[in-house]
Amino acid sequence: MNTRPAAKRFVVALGLGAMFGLLCVFLAAQKQPELASLTHPIFWAILTDRILIGLVVALSGPFTRHPVLGFPYRPWLRGACMGAVVSLPLAAGAMSGPESPQLSLWVIFAATLLAGGLYGALIDLVATKVGGEGNALLAA
Question: Quick check: pTM over 0.85?
């Protein structure tokens, strides 16, 4: 494995994103078992969304201060924000599904955003621990 901090951060963040994607599919399949099929489009939507969280978290590592507001950007907060924002399309897509007698569409929307934020925070914490953050990632 490459020993550069940015490479370590990318490998860890993408790997965790894939793991959380599979976990999320597993959890969603508890209510709807057909979602666990490799041919189901929701399987791929969930998996790619969570991998994308890993990618965005990996790319946001150099930012230790919020780029617009200027406050210190801790890894858990940076990851949570990135995870929730990346999860918005998946959550909005859940709103177009059929109403379930067990869960309202708003509960699914909120749970998707919350899970994305949680996954993003965890990914960023681990990726920062392994690969670092800030200017160290920008050095060759």
Answer: yes
